[in-house]
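Case study B.
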Amino acid sequence: MNLIGHGKVEIVERIKTISDFKELHRIEVKRQLAHEIVSIAYGFLSPLKGFMNYEEVDGVVENMRLPNGVLWPIPLVFDYSQNEKVKEGDTIGITYLGKPLAIMKVKEIFKYDKLKIAEKVYKTKDIKHPGVKRTLSYADAFLAGDVWLVREPQFNKPYSEFWLTPRMHRTVFEKKGWKRVVAFQTRNVPHTGHEYLMKFAWFAANENQKVDEPRTGILVNVVIGEKRVGDYIDEAILLTHDALSKYGYISPKVHLLSFTLWDMRYAGPREALLHAIIRSNLGCTHHVFGRDHAGVGNYYSPYEAHEIFDSINEEDLLIKPIFLRENYYCPRCGSIENEILCDHKDEKQEFSGSLIRSIILDEVKPTKMVMRPEVYDVLMKAAEQYGFGSPFVTEEYLEKRQSILG
Amino acid sequence: MNLIGHGKVEIVERIKTISDFKELHRIEVKRQLAHEIVSIAYGFLSPLKGFMNYEEVDGVVENMRLPNGVLWPIPLVFDYSQNEKVKEGDTIGITYLGKPLAIMKVKEIFKYDKLKIAEKVYKTKDIKHPGVKRTLSYADAFLAGDVWLVREPQFNKPYSEFWLTPRMHRTVFEKKGWKRVVAFQTRNVPHTGHEYLMKFAWFAANENQKVDEPRTGILVNVVIGEKRVGDYIDEAILLTHDALSKYGYISPKVHLLSFTLWDMRYAGPREALLHAIIRSNLGCTHHVFGRDHAGVGNYYSPYEAHEIFDSINEEDLLIKPIFLRENYYCPRCGSIENEILCDHKDEKQEFSGSLIRSIILDEVKPTKMVMRPEVYDVLMKAAEQYGFGSPFVTEEYLEKRQSILG
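Model:
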């Protein structure tokens, strides 16, 4: 058994076989924790090696810093039911969907004021905020400690085609000859507004590099995790971004598609920082931030995720943020523009998610200047194959969707 | 009389009135020299304070360096007919179109192998190369020495609307709040390929700056000087770029139009360096270089002007080059693209100067995805007003065009 995680500690040496694992006290975890364990073990969330203890949570909540001074915006906690017989110092086995997933060395068991987490991280106590709701619904105690996967995660299709560990990301970047990589965060099927956000960000990241061959790439890194009714289904998000490149709208020479297992917290500015850290762990040099990054409802102003970077020292982030305004279709220019460069504000046709949604629900193919025809076709196919007929998440999808991790 | 130039030397003190000027030995100069004197005096060609001596020409020709080590790619020489009675040490008066223009302190009178200049600067001895032809047609001796304007230049319309000294450029940049400015070199009426070259360069120059308000601008700096039959007329170049901004295709918030008096040498890579130096003197932080920059015929490969920057140390240039591929219209994308980002090479519709020219000659209005309708209209108006009916330079225009400097 090859453990996957950080550091070679004595525990890792001790748990050598599946029967060693079976002798441990075992806890079955929910999807969120299973996904986070995978992300921690592979280094998506580096320098975290496990779930946070009291001091770490407190530093993050109060100052966005780990006790060692490293910038970190959102607490990562392992909440557990106190019915479980676990004590500090234990090594426990973690199962997911009934199968061995990981081991954890429990260093600390603690409680923390969940309302305080909510207020500081989300800037609101409103239970209607999905991040607040998630936080308040945690169990009352938290386990802190490092984790190791006991097996490589198996992904179902189509996830398996796009799974790359942080190390694999770096290998692909090198193979493609990219010296710079700009990350694009998404949970959407791409309309042309997204496409040009990526294209414009490419120019920003490429800056003054030569263009005899592409030295800058775009990493489309989809956040895969908890869904809400009305979201695009995860399978469609991956397959449509793949189509955008496959059909040449963004050349494969400068395009790579992958995902990170992470349940969106909708923490707006703080989550923007977390996305920057994750993509820096993947080897990206730049990260684009558009309008309403990782926001929800009206809890954050449209460009609040840009503003938080004013308070961050450059040396605290190993990745450069690229700030862009929202794109729109300008009928005068005949192209995708934004209001910094184009002065036809009165004529602009904004991309309205709900308008595009209603067009798609009516099974009308949008114009190619809103959604590429191949993207639409792939979306509709994914709806049939994975969405129980719908490209959007329904109650049925939430109940019956195939699991991501096998 | 307020002399305009560099340094306060005793000569400047001595020539105080127009009658002082009239006591000097006077030389009438051709347009090229008059324009270069204006450019030198205002600092467009800083650190040059005058015309080069033997050692300077030799350093530039052989190593692209002035004797003090400063990067400089193209010799600036004052050729004169030896019939003129001038000797080293003289202070001479310079007239243009019969009116006092400048004074010059003659430090050195020298000869230099013109064929060697041609070969080194233009990489060819071919007399059909317009830069070679110009060099070989210089008189046989050169005057070296600093120059001072004896009056502010007066420009005829429409030039007067767009005249900015280097200092005035910096003042406008500051007023507009620009922290970065990307220069765009042009001698063309803008088609959409040019427009998007500027827009894409804006993203590159803006890189990771905030976009709450524009902190990056585009300086469209037209090279005004000698024309060849078939070129767009200078007046139309200025007025159409102005239209591009006035009609909102590039917002005035990020757009400024001006010109530099300079006779194109068509020196390809070496001239690209000179353009970078000039725009750095205007306060620009970036300079975009597309395909065939400052080239002519097939003397240079399409991206040779990019390659020369490989041999230049960053600290030798106070401006960052931005390299972009040629744009084309992609009917699949429905937009202006380039072959780094778009993979529809087989369908691309390149901007052909001669095709656009023939459409315009037939008085057919091009589609707005080739040329903006307002740009076309302004072009046609300029043809009537300044071009003797033609938007392109004709023999008639060469003979009768209004002078630029009044």
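DSSP finds 15 helices and 16 strands in chain B. The remaining cases will be described in the next quarterly update.
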